[in-house]
Amino acid sequence: MHRKYIFATLALFVAATVNGAPIPQGFESIDRTTRAAFDQQRISGMGLSIFDSRGNKLFEQMYGDFSADRRIPIASASKWVAGLTILRLVNAGKLSLDSTTGQVLGWKGPQAAITLEQLLSFTSGLPPRDACTLRPGILTADCVATLSKLKLVAPPGTRFDYGNTHLHVAAGLAEVATGKSWNEIFGTELRAQLGIGAEAVFYTWPRKSEGTTNPLIAAGMRMTMNEYAKVLELVYHRGVYRGQRLINDALFTAQATESYPKAVIGDSPMQRVGLAYHYGLANWLECPPPAVDCPVQTSPGAFGFTPWVDRAGGYYAIRRPAHWRGEVLGAAGRAAAADDPPGDAPVELAAARIADVSGMFPRQMHLHQRVECFRPIGFTAELEPKV
To answer: Who's near 145: CB < 8 A, 6+ residues apart?
Structure first.
């Protein structure tokens, strides 16, 4: 189907729907695919919202008990938000992608050479996980000091490992550069600029809304689908939000490009299921590597919150199950769903992900397949302990 025909057809669609409302013409098959996926999973509710390039809501449907205004933990979708917040500081000249932990934080030894770009691209060489990122009773600076003492698993820029330590240290750089706490930085640099509610906050334990002094930067945000749509609008338009430029275009080229294409791939949830996609700056790039200015980007979370932009297809979208328990796949995941583990150990959960088939939009990862869900990918969710 040619894109001109797609958008001529989309112009006739109703801007949004609510649960139980008639499905806009042309989206019947999308609704059938999504509803079938919902019926096949043990979840209480699910939502799908699709926007065109102008930010018009072309389709929105809730299945079961869910709402696009329900505030929920978004797990690793937090990474994209954190990355954009830091790019705002780079845009303002308070940091640069070349800023190092030695210059800003006073780190010593080989750890001092780690750059902000390496932190955002998860190629810092730090071990990808540490228990301090899950401790609510300390400051971000306290955890960052702990991370400064960790032995590197590889020289900076030579190895990719998906995890939460990289962004925690990046947040430490941001706090020192601004003299503010992470949530204050996010509130000033992104939340207020996009008109997102003050209740959108990073937590150490997001499912319990606890711990704001040492928030889990990589996976601790609570946000609604409608709020995250504003984040995607900013990304889709490469730093311009409703006529106002918030981040310069060159930084979005950097965000959508592999910084270190020759880096060894260590821990990668994409690789574990045979997908070759690599990482940009705090988001996945769905282009053949080495990705350069990739038009299809995403940041799926372990609780099922899956946002993506597809500039080649001319749209962006969010899919979200209401509860993560029923969507967990695999033996370890099912055990975690039955009984959340105590302590700080990370738990491998299955994020919603889909293989490639033909569909409505002219891209490799088509909309039909995205909403059909659930091909498991083990994105690491840092789950807070039970109390």
So the answer is: none
Give per-residue pLDDT as tens, 65-103. Answer: 999 999 999 999 999 999 999 999 999 999 999 999 999
257 Cβ neighbours under 8 A, 6+ residues apart: 280, 285, 291, 292, 293, 294
Contact in structure between 124 and 113 (CB atoms under 8 Å): no
- Taking the C-alpha atoms of residue 352 and residue 175, their distance in angstroms, rounded to an integer, is 33
3-state secondary structure of 232: helix
pLDDT of residue 42: 74
Ordered by start, the domain boundaries in the chain are 3-381
d(CA 255, CA 101): 20
Report how far apart the first and last C-alpha atoms of the chain are (Å, whole number): 53
**pLDDT at residue 227 greater than cutoff 80:** yes
Superfamily assignment of 3-381 in CATH? Answer: DD-peptidase/beta-lactamase superfamily (3.40.710.10)
Question: Residue 40 corresponds to which tokens in the numbers above?
Answer: 């096949």
| H-run or E-run covering 86 | helix 78-91
Instruction: Evaluate the CA torsion angle 80, 81, 83, 84 in order and state its sign.
Output: positive
